[in-house]
Design goal:
3-stranded antiparallel β-sheet; 6 helices; disordered N terminus
Amino acid sequence: MALVVEHWVRPGSAGERGLFDLYVGVLLGGIVAWAIPAFIAEMQINWGEARPIRRLLKPFHDNEKPTLIVTAPLYPTSLTAFEKSVPAVLRETVQVIPHHGVPWVLAESDAQALAYVMALLAAAGRTKNLSIVRDDDSTVLADANLVCIGSPKSNLKAKLVNDSFKGLPLRFAWEDDRQVIRSRDGTSVWRSDDECDYAVLVKVPNEEDYTKSVLFLAGISHRGTAGAGYYLWKHWRDLEASTKGKPFGMVLKVRRDDYQCVEPETAPFFVEQS
């Protein structure tokens, strides 16, 4: 199952709540069964609830400030078109012919995390100046606010953030051939096992340009990445209440057999700002 991210679709009007133009092309595989209903449900959120979401996501909610969502695509070699029935709520089949040759396909877990991030941005009223880019494009870290989906093992921009930002409260590291998560002072280490994965959910200033920020959602493995996206979407109220929009970091524990079984391994802790 995967997601082709190619061009805009508009799922419909939200009336006084405005339109949200989704930067998602065509959803492939079983992922569509939950993704579109989630988007539509979140579209109906009222502005009274949008206010605390905007506070949590600040500055990513701001339509006037460019934001890039950085994903790590898979690389098919010969596909030029897809045909797939999308969910019953849309009642249609879409033929996709990529604009620039080979389609852009994401792993299932990254697609799930992306869908949850997009749903929350929609609920915050984000309607423009937002793009999804590949991790291997020419974007530099100082260009915009960045949302990095996936760990340094798969996402090149996430690797740049992980390796170069000195103020990260949590960092991915390697123990022999295994990726782990370490606290900033190195006293705590989280390792995945057969039952659980661990993930980070971090919002920090962009150290290449402190007027911008980076939101980092990543698991040690793919299950953790999906779990981080789900936790942000499902538990934004708890996060907003505890962080009040401040930069923060936390570790999440994610069940391997069900990424929606996710719980905080640490409470959110604040990040010092320069």
